[in-house]
Amino acid sequence: MCAVRNDRYPHVFSPLKIRGVTLKNRLEYSPTVVLKCTPEGDVTEEMLDYVEYQAKTGVAYLTIGNTPVVHTGSSAWLCELNVTEDRCIHGINQLVVRARENGAEMSVELAHAGRGATTMPGVIGLAPSDVPLNGGPLGYIKPMNYEDMAFIKQQFVDCAVRCQKAGLKILMIHCGHNNLLAQFLSPASNHRTDEYGGSLENRMRFPLEVLAAIRQAVPDMVLEIRVSAQEDTPDGLQFEDSLAFMERAQEFIDIVHISRGVIFFNYASTYTTPTYFKERRFNVEFAAEAKRRLHIPVAVVGNITSLQEAEDIIAGGKADIVVMAKAYMADGDLIHKSVRGDAALVRPCTRCDWCGTANNYGTSMRCAINPLLGKSMDLESLVKPGRQQNVMVIGGGPGGMMAAQTLRKMGHQVDLYEKTGQLGGLMQDATIAPFKEYFRLYKEWDIRETERCGANIHLNTEVTAEMVLEKNPDAIIVATGSNYIIPRVPGVDGPNVKTVKDVEHHTVPVGENVVVCGGGIVGLECAIMLGMEGKSVTVIDMIPEEDFGKALAVFNHIEVMYQLEKYGVALQGDRRIQSFEPDAVVTVDSEGIEHRYFGDTFVLALGVKPEDRLLGELRKLYAEGVYAVGDCVGSGRLIADANQDGFHAAIRIR
Q1: Which pTM does this prediction carry?
Q2: Would the pLDDT of 362 be above 90?
C-alpha cells in the first residue's frame, strides 16, 4: 500500500502515546460480539480471519467484545472467546499476532453479564441484587455475598494477567450496558443494604475495587473502561453519577470509553445497539463533558459513521478517540478510501443490525450488505487468466447489483438487465419513509457502485427465455425479485384501497383514518410514517400480534414497536381479510367470528411473492449455469439474503 499524505484528517491521524503504547491514530474498532469461536471459546480460523479483517481496516486497535471472566457462568451468548484458562493463552496470542501482523493492536473486553447470564439456559446469574431483567420472572439470580464478590474480582484479575501473558498491551473492562459491574453502579439493579449499595459512594465500591486489583496485577497494561453515560431506564444510572464514577476510576485506568443504555432487550438497548431511527453521534456531548472533567483520554462510540465525523469530533475537543464498528463492517476500506479522497465510495451501513442477530441466535456474525465481512478473500485472484466468462444478470435489485459488482471485480464480462427504468428494485420503495435515511444512502451508493463497476446496464429491458438462448451467455444469474401480493377478495379494486408503494411514494390521496393490512416490516414502517403525518392508524394481519415485524433484528424490533406506540398505532392480529367495503375492511378471526375495521383508506402491505416464471423456464432449458438470487428464490426474504445470494452466486462462476 502506497504512502498517502495526511492532508484531510490531521487530528484523526495524530498518534497518541499511553503508558508506553503508541496508538498510530485515534481510531478504535468497537467491541463486537462476533461468536466465531467454538462453544468452548477456543480460537478458530474464522476468528483469526475476522481479527485480520478488523486490523486491515487501519484502526489503531480493535477490541474483541464481551469476553466473559467466567466462561460457563457469566456469558450472555455461546461461542465467545475464552480467556479463563491457561490453555487459552496460545489461541489468544494467535489473535494478537494476527492483529499486529496487519497493523493494529488488539484488546479484549473483560465482562461479566451478571443477571444477564440468566438468558443462557440453566445458568445462575450472580448479581448485586435479585432484580430480574425487564421486570420479568426472577430467573436464576443469586445476590452476591462477599465470597462471590471476592471470586469475581479474582477472575477479573486472573483473566487480565492471562491476557497480558498472551501478548496484549491494551485491555478493556466492561463497566457499562448494565453488565455486572454496571449493575452495582445502577440504582435500578443494586438494591443492597450493605456497604456496596445505597449511596453512589457505596455503589461504586465494588467496581472500583475490581479496577484497583486489575491495575495492581497488570501495572504496564493500558486499561480502558466502557461506561454508559446514562442507562435510559426508569431509576437507572444518570450521567452525573456515571461521570462521578469515571472521575474516581481514572486513578486506576487510562481511557474512558463513553457508550450508553443497557443491553438486556428493552428500549434502552436501542441506544447500546443503535437502530436506524437514532440520530447520529448521540453520545458526543456526553464525551465532551467527560473530557472537560477528566485528565485521561476519552473515547466515544454511537452512530458515528465516517472519518470526517471522527475528525470533527477530535478537532472540536469533544473526544480523543473515536470508536466505530458497523461502519467498518459495512466497508472494511472506509479509512483507506477516505484518506485517498474517495469517501463517496464508502459503502454506508443501513443500521439494519442483521450483524447483531448472531447475538440472539448463536450464529456467526455476518453483514447484510458486505458479504466479505471477516473473510480473507481476494476476488481478483479467484478467476485464472483467460477463464473470464460472459455472464447475464437478470434483475437490477440488490441481489442483481451485488452479483454484477462482484463479477466485475473477478474480471468477468457482465450484462445487467432491468425491466424498469431504474436500478434498485424494491429498495426504491423501502427507503421512502423519513426515518430510512441510512437505508436510503445505501441504496444510492449501491446504484452508483453498479453504474461504475463496468457492467453493461440495459434498462427498460424485460428478458425472455428466447433472449437468453439468443445471447448464449456462459452463465446466468436470475434476480427477478418479487411482486406485491394483492388478495383476490371482493372490493380490493375499490377507490379506498391503496398499495403500500403508492402510499409511501405519496402518489395517491390518503384519508385521516387508515387501516394498514399487513403486520410485516413494510406494513409497520408504513404505519409509523402515517402516524408521523398525524393519521389515525390500525394495523391488521392474520398472524398473531406477537409475530408482527418478526423479521426485524431484535433491537430494531424493539424500536419499531416503541415507535408504533409513540404514534398511537393500534395492532390487531388473527384477522384474515374477507372483503373491502366503502368504509370498512371485513375480516374473520381463527374462530370464524367476523370483525369490521372502519376507515377511509385501506393500505395493502401483505408482503411479496416471488417473480420466478423466467427462472422456471431457464431451469428447464439449462442443466447447469443458472443461479437464482434474492426474492425470486422464495418469500419472506431480506436484502441480506439478496446480497449474500448475489455474492455467492458470483464467486461460484470461475
Answers
A1: 0.95
A2: no
